[in-house]
Amino acid sequence: MVRDALDETDRGILHLLQEDARTITTAEMADAIGVSASTVRNRIGRLEADGVLRGYHPEIDYERAGYQLHMVFICCAPVEERAELVAEAMGIEGVVTVREMLTGSANVHIEGVGADSEMVDRISARLTRIGLEIESTDVVKTLHRQPFNHFGTEPVDGE
Fold first, then answer.
1. What is the residue-level pLDDT of the chain in tens, covering all 159 positions?
2. CB neighbours of 142 closer than 8 A, spacing ≥ 6?
3. What single-letter DSSP state applies at residue 132?
4. Can you state the angle between helices 117-130 and 82-90, rounded to 10 degrees?
5. Which residues, at least 6 apart from 123, have a Cβ–Cβ distance to it below 8 Å?
6. Distance (Å, rounded) from C-alpha 110 to C-alpha 141?
7. Closest by alpha carbon to 71, among 114, 126, 106?
C-alpha cells in the first residue's frame, strides 16, 4: 500500500517510465521533471517498495516473434472458483495475460498467442478442460497502448 498519495514528481516519473523505461536515464527524468537524479532514484525505490512499480516488461510484437495468431478469449467462471481457474490458465502454454474481472458473467479475459490455428485450438481445449466456459474468441489485429494520462501527459516542471 502506498504510504502517501502520489505527488507530481511521482506521477511524472511513472509517466516517463511508461513511455520508455528501457532507455530513459534517471538524469533525463530528473531534467524533464525538474528534480535531481538522486530524487528520481529514491522515488523509484520507494514506488517499487510500495508495490506501485511492480516490474519493467518488454512489449513484444508476437507476429514478428513467430506467433501470427494473437487471440482474446472471453470466458465465464464461477466466482468461487475464479481465482483457482485463473491460476491454472496462467500455466497453459501460449497464454500471455489473464484478467480477472470483478463483475459480469464474462469474468475472465485471456490473451493467448499461437504460431498456427492448431496451437490456438490447444489453448481453447485446455481452457475448457480446466473448467472455463469460453463465451467468445477474437483475433487481435493491433494492440495500441499509451501511458496512463493521470500520471501527466507532459513532464512536470516543478509546479
1. 455 688 989 999 999 998 889 999 999 999 999 999 999 999 999 999 999 999 888 888 888 999 999 999 999 999 999 999 999 999 999 999 999 999 889 999 999 999 999 999 999 999 999 999 999 999 999 888 877 766 654 544 554
2. none
3. P
4. 150
5. 71, 73, 92, 93, 94, 95, 112, 114
6. 16
7. 114
